[in-house]
Write a structure and sequence with these properties.
The structure is a homodimer of 565-residue chains. Chain A has 565 residues and is of the alpha/beta class. Chain A is 44% helix and 13% strand. Chain A is built from 25 helices and 15 strands. Chain A has an eight-stranded parallel β-barrel, surrounded by six helices. A three-stranded antiparallel sheet of chain A has the order 1-2-3. In chain A, strands 4-5 form a two-stranded antiparallel sheet. In chain A, strand 14, helix 20 and strand 15 form a beta-alpha-beta unit. The two termini of chain A are 35 Å apart. The relative contact order of chain A is 0.11. Chains A and B meet through helix 15, helix 20, helix 21, helix 22 and helix 23 of A and helix 14, helix 19, helix 20, helix 21 and helix 22 of B.
C-alpha cells in the first residue's frame, strides 16, 4: 500500500527482498519481507555471534512494493515460471488471437499431481518446499536463541524437503494451484503441514466497480498477506477484469466459472447448458485461472432437504445450479459431466475447489442433513478426480455455531482423505452485521487450529454490500490473525517465533520494532501516532517514549517488571 | 449513541422500554430494547395468533437513550434500589461531607451472599432472575414458532427462578455486584447458567482525557452493551471521575484500588502502606464501587518464577505489588491483610475480583508455572472470602495460544469451585497490534463457550494507547459478538432465537429488520447506505431493494433459493 513505502519509520525497518536459492531442480528467487531488528532489543547471546539482526517473513506480495501506480498493469508482471514451463515436453503451445496458450499435448497430463504420482519432483514442488521453510532457514539464529538445545531438533523437523512435498501432492494432501497458463505465479502450496493460507475474494458486481478498482483490490489483498485471490466478478467486464488480474498476480487466482456462464445467458439459469459451461471452463483455463470452484456435489436429490432450512441456499453458485435442476428436472450437469471436467482440468492443471453449494446460511441450518449429504458427494467426486490426477480441495461452511465447528473438520478429514479443507469463516453468529470479518475470524481460527488448510476471508461488508479496498485490507489482516493463530496452535515454530520477537520489542518499548513485526505495520503505527500526539514521525531517530497513553509513564507494568533476555 | 435516536429508519424499529414485573419480593422495571418486526417477514403461524410482532432484547443502557447531552450528569440517574436498601435493618446510614453513606451496622453483613447463605431472597436476586429470563418470557410467541412441540420444555428450562439464583449466589457460582452505596444500579448477575457478560474498561491516564470524556465513554459502553464498566483512571481527577461515573451508571462499576493508592504516593510503589490501601478501599466502598480487583494472589515466592518469562509482569496492579514486595522484602500486604479486606468488602457488599497479576503478557509465557501458582492462591483466598460472605470472581488471562486456552478454564473450574471466571481476552497471537480487539475476541469466544462468565473487552488501541469513545464502541460490540456466540454454544435459547429472526430478515431482504436485530444497528445501517448509494434513508418507507451490491440483482443466492417459513 502507498503508506508502506512512504512512511519514513517503516521504510527504514522493513524492506522486500528475494532470497536466491540454488535447488536441485532449479534456481529460485523466494520472496521475503526483511525486518531490521533494532540492536537494543537483541538478546546478548545473539549479539555475541552476529551483527546481522534481520528477521525474515514469508511474503505474498510478489514484485510489488506499492499500489499507487497502476498505469502499467497492461504489461503484466515477470513470468517466473516461463522457463520451467518451456522445458516440459508434455506441454504444447498454440496461438489464439494475439496470445500464446499452453495445454497438454494430446493424451498427456500436466498437473502437479500427475508428476507427483510418478515420483517426479517439479520446480514448483521444490519452490514450495523452500518457500514454506524460509522463515526457518533464514531465521536460524533466532531459533537457536529461543529453543536453545532444542533448536537443532526444531530446525530439522521444520525444514520441508521437495520429496516430502511431492509425496503429499501425490496423496492429495497438498495442492499447488498452478495453471500452466499462469507463468507469473510464484508457486505456493495448500494443505497439511504447511502454513495456513488465506484467500481474499474480490470482483465487481453488475452495479459496482470496474477493472482498475479490481486490480487495485488484488494488489491490496496480496500486499496485506492474501495467499490466493478469487475473482468473483459478475458484471459485463468480467473477461477483461480477469485477464488484468491474472497477468498481474503472483498468487493463484480462483474463479467460479458458473458466474461467467450466467452472464452469457443474461442471468437466466434455465438457459445454461453443459456446452456453454464447458466452453467457459476451457476459456478460463486458457487465460490462466489456477483453481475453479465447481458446485458438482449439490444433487437433485438434495433439494427437498432444503425445505427444512431457514435460510435455504446462500451460495451463489449453489443457487444457480439448484435453479437449473429445478427448471430442467435433471441432475446437476457438472456432476454428470464430471469426468469431462476433470479432463479439462488436467489439460491445463487447474485445481478444483469442490464447492459447498449447500453450506448453511444461518446458525439454524448448521450441520444439517443437506450440508453433510453434499460433503459426502464431494468426497466421491474427489476420488474420481484423482483418476485424472486433478488437484482437489473441498469447500466448507459458512455459518456454524462454536459448538458445531469441530465436527465439520473431523468429518471432512475422514470422508475426504485429509485433502485440503477450505472454509468460508465460519461466522459463529448471524447478528454481527457490519462486523462479520470478526464473527467469522473467530470460527476460522477454531477450524484453522483444528487443521483447515485455507481460510476464505470475510470482510466487514459481508451481508451488506460490495467490499472496497479498505474492506479488503481489513478482511485480509483479520484473516492473517486467524491463520497465524492457527499456525501457533498447529505447532509451527516460525509462527511462535515471530510472537516472541514481538514480546522482546514490547518489553523494551521499541515501538518501531513492534510496528514492523505487526501484521499491519502501517495501521498500527498510524494508530500509535494518533493517540500519542507528542511523538513525531520525523523519521530521523527512533521513538524513544518508554510508555504509551494507555497507562502513562507512572503506571506501565512493563517498566516495573523484570524480564528475561 | 447519538445516531441511535436520530436515524429515522432505526427510530421506527427500535425503542427502549421497561417491563413492569410484579415479583414476590418487590415490583421491578426491567429494561429492554423492543424491536418492531416487520409484518412481511413474520411467519404465517405467528400472524394467525397475534398482531404484536415485537421482539425483546436484554438491555444494559439504563435510562439513557442518547449520549449527546452530558450537561446533567451532576444530578445522577434514578436510584432504583433506594427503597430496597432503606428497608434493610442491617444497614445504617451516616453523613460524610454532604453525602449520606450506607454501611452494615456493627457486626452485621450485607452482602448478597450473606442473605443467600441464610436462604433469604433479596430484591436484587429476584430482579436478576426476571432480567435473565426477559428474552424468554417476553418472546414466547417466537419460541413457540421456532421450537414447536419442544417450546414448552424450552420455556420451562430457561425461565430462572429467584430461588435458583439465591442458591447459586450462596454457593458462590453467581455473583451480583451491588454495593449498597450504588442505589442507581440495575442489578445483574455474573456466573454459570446466566448470559455471558462483558466488561468495558474506561478511565483516563495521567496524560490523557478528563471527566466529561470518561462519563461519555461509560455511556457509549453501556449503550453498546457493556454489562459492567471498570474505571481504571490513574490521573489527578481520579476521585471526581469515579464519582461522576458511579452516580450515572446503571451497571456495576469496578476499580483497581491500588491505582488510587499509587496516585496518593506520587507514583512511588515503595511508599505504599497497608493503612493507605485500607483507607482507599473504604473510601471507594463508600462511593459505591461494586467490585474491586485486588492482586492478593501474587506472592513473594512467585517472583523468581518471573525470571523465566519473556514479558515478565504485564498487569499494572501486579507490577505495583511485585515492586512493593521487592522493595520491602515482605509478603504482599493484600494477602497478609486478606481477612481485614474481606471485612470491609462485606460491610458494603463490594464483590472482589481476585486479580491475576501474573497473567502472561505474551504467548511464550502462557500457562506457565507463575500463572498457575497465582491461580492456586486465588482459590485459597476465595475460600477465606467465603467465610466473610464476600462475593468472589477470579480474573484470568491474557495472552494464550488457541491450543492452551481450554486448560485455563478447566483448571479454574476445578480449583475455584466453579466461581465466576472473568478473563481478559485472551489474545491468541502477539502480532495483531491495532487489531487486538479481534485477536482477543477469538480467544474470548473459545473460553466463553467453555464456560467463562464474563469477558473483559480489549479495544483496537490495546498495546498502543488510551482508547477513545470510538475504540470503546468497537471493543464493546466485538465482545458482544464473543459473548453472544458463547451463549449460543452454551445452549441459551434466547441467543439462538435472535439469530433465527435475523435469518428470517435476511431471506426476505428486510434490511430494516436486519439492522434492528444486529448487535450494532447504527453501524450496519451506515455501512449499507454507504455501499448502496441508490438507497435513501428518507425514513418514510422501508428499503425495498431485494439485493445488495455484493452480488447485484442477478446473482443473489437468497433470491434464487427456497426457504422455510
Amino acid at each position: 500500500m502507498k503508506e508502506f513505502v512512504e512512511n519514513s519509520i517503516l521504510k527504514k525497518k522493513i524492506h522486500k527482498d528475494y532470497i536466491n536459492i540454488r535447488g536441485n531442480i532449479s534456481n529460485f528467487l523466494i520472496p521475503v519481507k526483511v525486518i531490521k531488528i533494532s540492536e537494543h532489543i537483541v538478546p546478548e547471546e545473539i549479539k555475541k555471534r552476529t551483527t546481522n539482526f534481520e528477521y525474515y517473513i514469508y511474503d505474498t506480495s510478489g514484485p510489488y512494493e506499492k499500489v499507487d501506480n497502476l498505469s502499467n498493469f497492461q504489461n503484466g508482471i515477470k513470468r517466473v515460471r516461463e522457463e520451467w514451463l518451456n522445458s516440459r515436453t508434455e506441454i504444447q503451445s498454440y496461438n489464439k488471437g494475439n496470445k500464446t496458450i499452453r495445454k497438454a499435448t494430446n493424451g498427456e497430463r500436466v498437473t502437479q499431481r500427475y508428476y507427483a504420482r510418478k515420483g517426479i519432483i517439479t520446480p514448483e514442488m521444490e519452490y514450495v518446499a523452500y518457500r514454506e521453510s524460509i522463515e526457518i532457514s533464514q531465521n536460524k539464529i533466532w531459533i537457536e536463541w529461543l529453543w536453545k538445545e532444542k533448536a537443532k531438533d526444531v530446525l530439522e523437523k521444520s525444514v520441508l524437503s521437495a520429496e516430502w512435498i511431492c509425496k503429499q501432492v501425490a496423496e492429495g494432501k497438498i495442492i499447488i494451484p498452478s495453471n500452466i497458463n499462469h507463468p507469473e505465479l510464484e508457486p505456493m502450496g495448500i494443505g497439511q503441514g504447511l502454513r495456513t493460507k488465506i484467500n481474499a475474494n474480490i470482483g465487481n458486481s453488475s452495479i459496482r466497480s470496474g477493472i482498475n478498482e479490481e486490480v487495485e483490490k488484488m494488489l491490496w489483498a496480496i500486499m496485506c498477506g492474501a495467499d490466493t485471490v478469487m475473482d468473483l466478478s459478475t458484471g459485463e467486464d468480467i473477461n477483461a477484469i480477469r485477464e488484468a488480474i491474472i497477468r498481474n498476480s503472483p498468487v493463484p487466482i480462483g474463479t467460479v466459472p458458473i458466474y461467467e456462464v450466467l452472464e452469457k445467458v443474461e442471468g437466466k439459469p434455465e438457459d445454461i447448458s453443459w456446452e456453454l459451461y464447458r466452453d467457459v471452463l476451457i476459456h478460463q483455463a486458457e487465460q490462466g485461472v489456477d483453481y475453479f470452484t465447481i458446485h458438482a456435489g449439490l444433487l437433485e436429490e438434495h433439494l427437498p432437504m432444503i425445505e427444512k432450512r431457514l435460510a435455504g441456499i446462500v451460495s451463489r453458485g449453489g443457487a444457480i445450479m439448484a435453479r437449473w435442476m429445478e427448471e430442467h428436472k435433471q441432475q446437476n450437469f457438472t456432476y454428470t459431466h464430471w469426468d469431462e471436467i476433470c479432463e479439462i482440468l488436467s489439460t491445463y492443471d487447474v485445481a478444483v475447489s469442490i464447492g459447498d453449494g449447500l453450506r448453511p446460511g444461518c446458525i439454524y441450518d448448521a450441520n444439517d442433513e443437506a450440508q453433510f449429504a453434499e460433503l459426502k458427494v464431494q468426497s466421491e467426486l474427489a476420488k474420481r478426480a484423482e483418476q485424472f490426477d486433478v488437484q482437489v480441495m473441498h469447500e466448507g461452511p459458512g455459518h456454524i455455531p462454536m459448538d458445531k465447528i469441530i465436527k465439520n473438520i473431523e468429518i471432512q478429514k475422514e470422508w475426504c482423505s485429509s485433502a485440503p479443507f477450505y472454509t468460508l469463516g465460519p461466522v459463529v453468529t448471524d447478528i454481527a452485521t457490519g462486523y462479520d470479518h470478526i464473527s467469522s475470524a473467530i470460527g476460522a481460527t477454531v477450524i484453522g487450529s483444528a487443521g483447515t488448510a485455507m481460510l476464505c476471508y470475510v470482510t466487514p461488508k459481508e451481508h451488506i454490500g460490495l467490499p472496497d479496498k479498505e474492506d479488503v485490507r481489513e478482511g485480509v489482516v483479520t484473516y492473517r490473525i486467524s491463520a497465524h493463530a492457527s499456525d501457533i496452535a498447529k505447532g509451527l515454530p516460525s509462527a511462535f517465533l515471530r510472537d516472541c520477537l514481538m514480546a522482546l520489542a514490547r518489553v523494551k518499548f521499541s515501538w518501531e520494532d513492534q510496528f514492523a513485526l505487526a501484521l499491519d505495520p502501517e495501521k498500527s503505527l498510524k494508530m500509535f501516532l494518533e493517540s500519542n500526539p507528542c511523538v513525531q514521525d520525523n523519521g530521523e531517530k527512533r521513538i524513544n517514549q518508554n510508555y504509551c497513553t494507555m497507562c502513562g509513564p507512572k503506571f506501565c507494568a512493563m517498566k516495573l517488571s523484570k524480564t528475561k533476555e
